[in-house]
């Protein structure tokens, strides 16, 4: 069988080979997602190593997340141009090498530069790895495959902070990055051995103007939202960044609709299931992404717990995530995408609102139950949305759809953290101490309001789901709708 570029394309992998690819991609996703959050509890020790103020260390997180948002859109073009194995293997190599550089740096600017390089590798790993899974997995196995590669995005933000705190307390923050070396080497060896290098459109041109416009828009909007969540918000700068982001985003939208080979292919949005998963699904991801940011702050600042107690409680969310994996497929087969997403989406929003009722006097058992139930709901919703995204997308559009989905996913994760910070600022303002600076100005009541705001955002996202057909994605879920 001939590949589009005239080379011989490898035959479709067997199910055993598909399972290995799914496991490999899930492992690299976990490594990439973990690095986005694990350094949060290590920042004070890192600041002492670099001889800077701890607040300045936010540059290390921001540089990584912004690089992901900028470079993810070109992953689809790279995979089409150079092949899945070449790009995915190179991404693992770059990410691993950058991790070692992060561990060996001695100044903040050098660390930020290494994080940018690490972000470039991560930007290629996420969508290209997902594309490899989508191409290797038959439709009837897509539910299971997506469920497996979804859990890194759920688990890593939850266990990242306590794991980083453990490593930092009992060893050195540098081992956070050294741990990626053996994982990366194993992943690279497996990728080179088991992935094929088929290319869908090797002659596709690189859309430089589209890449520049999308990069500027994503960067300015994310950075503006981060600034809004700070106590000393420079409103003039924020206004300018939002204006630049909105204008470049609109121009980018016009550009990608006009050119033949855009950096971000929007054609998949014509598929109803994909459009709904990207629309209302993005609001859900924003609300859920605020939880790993708000919970540790509420436990440590609002409830007076130490970092270890806070980390142990947040593991209840992780337990809920894993427990739901055992029943996700039967639930989807029994009720179908539409019913599950609407009902479970409402339950997920209610579980977030329930967190607003927690207080320092709430028994730990009740807190654990609330977090566990929230973990169940967010896991099912994440898996259902990610699977629905590609349920009806034609194979020819998988590359563009994967890049667009990964871009929006990364944007919503970053926006979710910013929304959590903004919700806290708004709560402080409502309670009359918005002008006070510092974490000590936050009260348990502020976190209660913040969780209500976040829950409302997730609830609004459900409205888009009512437009789905009752049998939407049935070929993937296996659900049979019985007409009256």
Overall SS class: mainly alpha
Secondary-structure element pattern, one letter each: HHHHHHHHHHHHHHHHHHH
Characterize the main sheet: none
- CATH hierarchy, class of the largest domain: Mainly Alpha
Pfam family, one: MFS_1
GO molecular function: transmembrane transporter activity
Transmembrane segments: 20-41, 61-79, 86-106, 112-133, 145-163, 175-194, 206-223, 235-254, 274-295, 301-323, 335-359, 365-388, 408-427, 447-469
Organism: Caballeronia choica
Compact summary:
The chain is an all-alpha fold and 484 residues long. It has helices at residues 15-37, 43-50, 58-71, 75-82, 84-104, 108-136, 142-170, 175-178, 180-194, 208-228, 235-258, 272-289, 291-302, 307-325, 328-355, 364-391, 398-430, 444-460, 474-477.
């Amino acid at each position: 069988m001939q590949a589009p570029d005239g080379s011989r394309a490898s035959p479709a992998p067997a199910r055993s080979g598909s399972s290995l690819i799914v496991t490999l991609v899930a492992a690299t996703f976990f490594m990439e997602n973990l690095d986005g959050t694990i350094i949060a509890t290590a920042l004070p020790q890192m600041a002492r190593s670099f001889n800077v103020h701890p607040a300045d260390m936010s540059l290390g997180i921001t540089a990584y997340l912004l690089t992901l948002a900028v470079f993810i859109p070109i992953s689809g073009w790279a995979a089409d141009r150079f092949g899945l194995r070449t790009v995915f293997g190179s991404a693992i190599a770059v990410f691993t090498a950058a991790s070692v550089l992060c561990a060996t740096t001695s100044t903040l600017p050098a660390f930020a530069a290494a994080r940018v390089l690490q972000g470039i590798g991560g930007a290629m790993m996420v969508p290209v790895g997902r594309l490899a899974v989508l191409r290797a997995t038959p439709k009837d196995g897509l539910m299971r495959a997506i469920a497996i590669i979804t859990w890194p995005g759920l688990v890593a933000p939850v266990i990242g902070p306590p794991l980083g705190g453990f490593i930092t307390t009992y060893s050195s923050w540098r081992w956070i990055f050294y741990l990626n070396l053996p994982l990366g080497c194993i992943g690279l060896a497996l990728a080179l051995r088991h992935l094929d290098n088929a290319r869908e459109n090797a002659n596709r041109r690189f859309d430089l103007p589209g890449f520049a416009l999308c990069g500027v828009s994503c960067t300015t909007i994310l950075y503006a939202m981060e600034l809004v969540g700070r106590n000393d918000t420079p409103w003039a700068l924020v206004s300018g960044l939002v204006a630049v982001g909105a204008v470049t985003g609109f121009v980018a939208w016009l550009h990608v609709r006009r050119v033949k080979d855009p950096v971000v292919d929007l054609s998949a949005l014509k598929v109803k299931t994909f459009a709904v998963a990207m629309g209302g699904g993005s609001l859900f991801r924003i609300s859920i992404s605020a939880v790993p940011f708000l919970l540790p702050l509420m436990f440590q600042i609002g409830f007076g717990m130490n970092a270890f107690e806070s980390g142990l409680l947040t593991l209840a969310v992780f337990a809920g995530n894993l427990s739901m994996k055992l029943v996700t497929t039967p639930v989807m087969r029994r009720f179908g995408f539409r019913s599950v997403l609407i009902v479970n989406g409402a339950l997920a929003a209610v579980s977030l609102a329930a967190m607003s009722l927690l207080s320092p006097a709430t028994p730990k058992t009740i807190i654990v139950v609330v977090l566990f139930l929230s973990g169940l709901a967010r896991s099912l919703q994440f898996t259902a949305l990610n699977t629905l995204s590609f349920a009806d997308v034609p194979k020819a559009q998988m590359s563009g759809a994967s890049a667009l989905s990964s871009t929006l996913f990364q944007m919503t994760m970053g926006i979710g953290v910013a929304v959590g910070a903004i919700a806290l600022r708004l709560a402080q303002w409502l309670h009359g101490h918005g002008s006070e600076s510092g974490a000590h100005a936050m009260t348990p009541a502020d976190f209660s309001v913040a969780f209500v705001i976040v829950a409302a955002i997730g609830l609004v996202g459900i409205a888009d789901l009512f437009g789905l057909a009752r049998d939407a994605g049935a070929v993937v879920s296996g659900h049979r709708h019985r007409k009256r």
